[in-house]
Design goal:
Blueprint: H1 16-22, H2 25-28, H3 32-48, H4 54-72, H5 85-97, H6 99-103, H7 110-146, E1 151-156, E2 159-165, H8 166-191, E3 193-194, H9 210-216, E4 221-222, H10 226-231, H11 234-261, E5 268-269, H12 288-312, H13 326-346, E6 351-352, H14 354-361, H15 368-377, H16 382-399, H17 408-412, H18 422-426, H19 428-434, H20 443-455
Helix pairs in contact: 3-4, 3-7, 3-9, 4-5, 7-8, 7-13, 7-20, 8-11, 8-20, 11-12, 11-13, 12-13, 15-16
Bound molecules: arginine (ARG).
């Protein structure tokens, strides 16, 4: 019979397969630092409340310091027999300091312990992500600033629609990532609550001080209901949901990078170190990093779905199902962290090819709306202006040229209101400059938006 923490009432040991099936130590050991932090705060509270002796607290602190060192140096002997990170550490503590180690679990359960560890771990992760969002946004802002005046065809339905600037286009992603960052900050508020004190599910008979533990661990407050504290993982689901939306944005950006880098489009080039070649086609330079990011969005969405499904059938309070929350959560965080890091590295190396963008702009009658707006300003109702310009576009198409290539006489055939000043609005710079309001693509507005975004932290 093993000396498992809960073995007293069992008459036979679990099989090796069951042991492996139920153990979590090989993935939850990632939370060792958080587990130790939580235990130290709990022990300090127990001593302050007179539940354990001051000497026990000193022994626990000494033992935990040694264990933390062993883990850091890779010397800690993680053992499948001890199921999870919590029991592994507690067992080592008891081996090091004896009875004081066995007193640590007073007034606590692994149920509130694991919920605390995950919340601490997730809080650390969110704080790391916050910095990565800042770095990526600043990288995007730098490129946007360099190209605040560079014309790019703006697309709707993947058809040339109206001119925009490349800077304006990148700022759209800066906005998306700013909202993502806000979502994580908001999620953090609900993550940052202390479950400890809930014990197994009902609370504990000892005179604990939960507020003290919360303060010690930097939580904003305590989970108000013990059953809820140990059982819900909605905060982890929220995290995965925010991560999924970020990956949606990353994936859309990736799709554009891939498209722009296609030789058929040729708007940009990515630095070689983010691309790979083909083992058979010597000419190839493939945008592997954006392609993988687009692909990895799928696994993140999958984890969100997994966690939702994990939660939906569970009666209160804790069920072992919850042990399955960690791998999806860790993988979501790892994927997102790597993705944001690699994009922050890749963005400064985007080589913009303004000639290709300008050539594409000459092909799609991108200033047709500007001509319609011009006619409206001359007094024509918008619907009539729209019709007149549609006929002009058809004529240009037949002639094989763009709208500004038509002569004044040719243009006047579609409306007598057209004068020589029309060529000012038919040019791309004229079209861009005219959209001069907050949120518009005029270079001055793009520069102002960049300044506003830079001023945010
Ligand atoms: N390893 C477990 C988990 O990840 C810790 C909590 C175990 N609690 C229990 N009553 N078996 O959820």
């Amino acid at each position: 019979m093993s000396n498992k923490a809960w073995s007293g009432r069992f008459s036979e040991p679990v099989s090796d397969l069951v042991k492996r099936y139920t153990a979590s130590v090989f993935f939850d050991r990632r939370m060792a630092a958080q587990d130790i932090r939580g235990s130290l705060a709990h022990a300090k509270m127990l001593a302050r409340q007179g539940i354990i002796a001051a000497a026990d607290l000193s022994a626990i602190e000494r033992g935990m310091a040694q264990i933390a060192g062993e883990i850091e140096r890779g010397e800690f002997n993680w053992n499948l027999d001890d199921e999870d990170v919590h029991l592994n550490i507690e067992k080592r503590l008891t081996a090091l300091i004896g009875d004081a180690g066995k007193r640590l679990h007073t007034g606590r359960s692994r149920n509130d312990q694991v919920a605390t560890d995950i919340r601490l771990w997730l809080r650390d992760t969110i704080d790391l992500l916050d910095g990565l969002f800042a770095t990526l946004s600043h990288a995007l802002l730098d490129v946007a600033e360099a190209h605040a005046e560079t014309p790019l065809p703006g697309f709707t339905h993947l058809q040339v629609a109206q001119p925009v600037t490349f800077g304006h286009h990148l700022l759209a992603y800066v906005e998306m990532f700013a909202r993502d960052r806000e979502r994580f900050a908001d999620c953090r508020k609900r993550v940052n609550r202390l479950p400890l004190g809930a014990a197994a599910l009902a609370g504990t008979t000892f005179p604990i001080d939960r507020e003290f533990v919360a303060r010690e661990l930097g939580f904003d407050g305590v989970c108000a209901n013990s059953l809820d504290a140990v059982s819900d993982r909605d905060f982890a689901i929220e995290f995965c949901s925010a991560a999924s939306l970020t990956m949606v944005h990353v994936s859309r950006f990736s799709e554009e990078l891939i498209l722009w880098m296609s030789p058929r489009v040729g708007f940009i080039d990515l630095a070689d170190r983010f691309c790979t070649g083909s083992s058979i086609m010597p000419q190839k330079k493939n945008p592997d990093v954006p392609e993988l990011a687009r692909g990895k969005s799928g696994r993140v969405f999958g984890h969100l779905m997994g966690l939702l499904t994990l939660m939906k059938g569970q009666p209160l309070a804790y069920n072992k199902d919850n042990q399955e929350d960690k791998e999806p959560l860790f993988d979501t965080a790892d994927t997102l962290i790597d993705t944001l890091r690699i994009f922050a590295d890749m963005v400064p190396g985007i080589r913009v090819k303004p000639e290709a963008m300008a050539a594409a702009l000459r092909q799609g009658f991108a200033t047709a709306t500007d001509l319609a707006d011009y006619l409206v300003r001359k007094g024509l109702p918008f619907r009539d202006a729209h019709e007149a310009v549609a006929r002009a576009v058809r004529a240009a198409e037949t002639k094989g040229c763009d709208l500004p290539d038509l002569t004044l006489a040719e243009l006047q055939a579609f409306s007598a209101l057209i004068g020589a000043d029309v060529f000012g609005v038919l040019t791309v710079p004229g079209s861009l400059a005219a959209r001069n309001h907050i949120g518009g693509t005029a270079p001055d507005q793009v520069k102002a938006a960049i300044a506003r975004l830079r001023a945010m932290r």
